[in-house]
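Newbie here. two chains, one complex. Structure please?
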Amino acid sequence: MQTNAGRDTLSARDTARQPIEAGDPVNDSRLFRRCLGLYGTGIAIITAEMEDQRAAVTVNSFASVSLDPPLVLWSISRASRSHPLFTNGKRFAVNILASTQMNVSRHFSSKVEDKFADTSWSPGEFGSPLLHGCLAHFECETYAQVEGGDHTILIGLVRRASRFDGEPLLFAQGQYSVAYSHPEVSPAPEVGRFTPETATEGTIIPQIFEAHHLLSAVFDEHRHAEGLDISVARVIACVYDMPGLKTDQVARATYLGQRDTEDALATLVERGMLVSSADGQLVLTEAGRHRREAIRTRWQNFQKDQLEGIPEADLRATLRTLSKLIAQNRPAK
Amino acid sequence: MQTNAGRDTLSARDTARQPIEAGDPVNDSRLFRRCLGLYGTGIAIITAEMEDQRAAVTVNSFASVSLDPPLVLWSISRASRSHPLFTNGKRFAVNILASTQMNVSRHFSSKVEDKFADTSWSPGEFGSPLLHGCLAHFECETYAQVEGGDHTILIGLVRRASRFDGEPLLFAQGQYSVAYSHPEVSPAPEVGRFTPETATEGTIIPQIFEAHHLLSAVFDEHRHAEGLDISVARVIACVYDMPGLKTDQVARATYLGQRDTEDALATLVERGMLVSSADGQLVLTEAGRHRREAIRTRWQNFQKDQLEGIPEADLRATLRTLSKLIAQNRPAK
């Protein structure tokens, strides 16, 4: 096999690795979904109104297409109840969610009958509902529809674009996320890079940023070593702490979507870690409970190892500093 | 205007806000790009090989389409040199970048002639080049092509999907980013939620996570108050520190793409903060230098305010703890 893997290049560390899993997605749609989930995305709620009927769907298939003319696209499942309304309609709005809108995303993904009744919104200039609190709105006319397997791709001509203050809500690795500057870029242009050797009182906050990033990356490796991706780890922790829940309750408690929760539960059943009773109550098997306890022990040992050798007095002082910083920046309820 | 904004709902805080800017994207493509940039995305490099010619383009327009059949899509500019190769070809591969591959993204976005020569890769089972070190690969046959204004949308039938260990590289708010669990979800299933009142030695690491999130959000508000988005703030800091650079040098130094850098520079010129000499050297005006100094002062005051009232001895102990955690988790060079 022709390969450049051995060459001493800018990507020398990117040698060929073994995949965790690989295959034909026709035979394994869960594998395909897990692979797709590795592409992080924002979250958009698409809204439309036609003859006093309103529809909204939550998607992460939004993408930009063209600047001239200004086009964007997204896809809707042909099985969706809202499919006829969007495909017969002549316009829609794309509402890009902000990091403060996790509850809005959850609300619009739920089975509530009239989602607009409990939501703050107003009609846009082109007639589609615009949700308040979003980061951006794209008010569109339907430009083209393209059949795409079990979905229809809707291409919109953007008639009006607007943006607001805030940070984006993201969906990455199967969970709601927020984005921070990549650690190899300075965390903020004001901060600059530093090394522990140059630490002064003026670097406590940048050091908190860097410590967070490094600890987070190192602990992720521990979780991978346990053979669990984050959605499976979250589900196993939830069922351990609250045995007897049903699938939709686990989906809400873990902040995973219904589909990711179902996939994670199926993985756990396949591996003999979970059983589901006749009435749908979920309980871990002994193997499942052991795995959960192994992860918790790993986390406790990780903390102990990390803090080992730091004098007790320093740990207490660090806790006081961090607690004060947290208390004074917590948003008021 | 019909509105539900005043109602006491789950979104009561999402009252209608004034947009920072809004308009018809036909008249202002930079406004349109700034709005599009608020939708966070992963980064994908699309590769293809035809008659010993290889092509690669870096995109953030990747999206999933369908599970049955397994379809994905992305868009390529009709002005791209690689447009003919991708639209005449019968297959391509989607390489989803990992957080460790910022250098790969920069390399493939640069003007280097043969991008594959300095990159570690091998041909996939279906003939398209697969880059090493990625988070996922989708090996595709071209399923359909759709004209989309100044771009062509390519829809791929996925013949093989594979995934690897790692975290995704993201592009959000005009910069390379990494994702962390949303703070309203526990940072990791192992950690759980805590309050300052329950702080113990066992909570130092979760406290670092929470302090980072809160400080980061509060400082973002300061930057917005200065009227600068993050890409403009980064460019102004770069030109201040290194006057006389040219556009492509600023793009590399700031880790912004060429287009975002050009947009940020144009904004600064419009606002009278920057001038460009005949040979393309960039220099801040006095207004530009003042703005840069105002941001730096704001950052210094922010740090001072945050740490005010914490005893000197506690600050030193905190620094020792953080420096140790950073030093022992820094990857070896």
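Moderator note: Residues 1-13, 193-199 of chain A have pLDDT under 50 and may be disordered. The two ends of chain A are 60 Å apart (CA to CA). Thread marked as resolved.
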